[in-house]
Amino acid sequence: MAETISSFWGPVTSTIECCEKNYAYSSYIAEFYNTISNIPTILLALIGLINAFRQRFEKRFSVLHISNMTLAFGSMLYHATLQQVQQQSDETPMVWEILLYMYILYSPDWHYRSTMPIFLFLYGAAFAAVHSVFSLGIGFKFHYVVLCLLCIPRMYKYYIYTEDVCAKRIAKLYVVTLLLGSLFWFCDRVFCKEISQWPINPQGHALWHVNMGFNSYFANTFLMFCRAQQRGWSPKIVCLMGVLPYVKIEKPKHQ
């Protein structure tokens, strides 16, 4: 899948390609399934954003949902073009998004409130500048994994201190979608040669996108529930159309 292909966007210049035949359906879209598989992430983030606005959650959650959408649009642009510049529009928002998760997870117990957002903002800006000049390759992956691992202890702490059964179920769905999506990503990367010989390509990277769309939504929903508990907003989990869980709150009258 790594051959150079002339198309509307020109030769492939990205450092990573997935196990999907390029330009199979359109000369304008390099990886069709990997492009459209970001749509669920955008729709789920939009639902979360509407809920955050409607119930007047803190602005951090609106920014978080917008960050999810920005990442999905960047991923669509990258997979549609397979250009190195557009690859950065996928990878850089990944780091920005995880920095935002770190802020939401750790800020409630941070004694110097102004220092954390300033530091994370400068860190994100510095990373974007460095990443725009240097192709970090494996360094980017290692850096991103480290940032994700820093979030796990705090996420686990929130889980063990949450007594609501429905909220705990959402946290478990977060873990399931993460593991399942990672499995699809791993198989797509490692077994591409074998998969390419199958009659039907299962599109592992596209399935990774779909799972991570739900993963982000479940993470956001769980964090919104935990934050509402911290603020004394009497949160509860209800389901949209009996299927999609979201957080419903009742703020005290003085708020």
Ends: how far apart? 56 Å
Largest sheet: 2 strands, antiparallel
What is the overall shape? globular
Mean pLDDT across residues: 91
Residue share in helices? 55-70%
Q: Which residues sit in consecutive blocks of at least 5 with pLDDT less than 50?
A: 1-5
| Rounded Rg | 19 Å
Number of strands: 2
CATH superfamily: Rhodopsin 7-helix transmembrane proteins
CATH fold field value: Rhopdopsin 7-helix transmembrane proteins
Q: How many domain modules? A: 1
Encode the helix/strand succession as letters.
Answer: HHHHHHHHHEE
How many helices? The count is 9
CATH-defined architecture: Up-down Bundle
Which class of secondary structure composition applies to the elements? mainly alpha
Spatially, the strands of the biggest sheet line up as 1-2
So what's the CATH class? Answer: Mainly Alpha
Q: Give the amount of beta strand, in percent.
A: under 5%
Summarize the structure.
The chain has 255 residues and is mainly alpha-helical. The protein has helices at 32-36, 39-54, 59-81, 84-106, 115-133, 138-160, 165-190, 192-195, 204-230, and strands at 236-240, 244-248.
Walk me through the structure.
Residues 1-5 have low confidence and may be disordered. It is built from nine helices and two strands; from the N terminus they run αααααααααββ. The chain has helices at 32-36, 39-54, 59-81, 84-106, 115-133, 138-160, 165-190, 192-195, 204-230, and strands spanning 236-240, 244-248. Helix 3 (59-81) packs antiparallel against helix 9 (204-230) and helix 4 (84-106) runs antiparallel to helix 5. It has one domain (32-250): Rhopdopsin 7-helix transmembrane proteins (Up-down Bundle), CATH 1.20.1070.10. Helix content is 65%, strand content 4%. It starts with 31 loop residues before the first helix and ends in a 7-residue tail after the last strand. The chain is mainly alpha-helical and 255 residues long. It has a two-stranded antiparallel sheet.
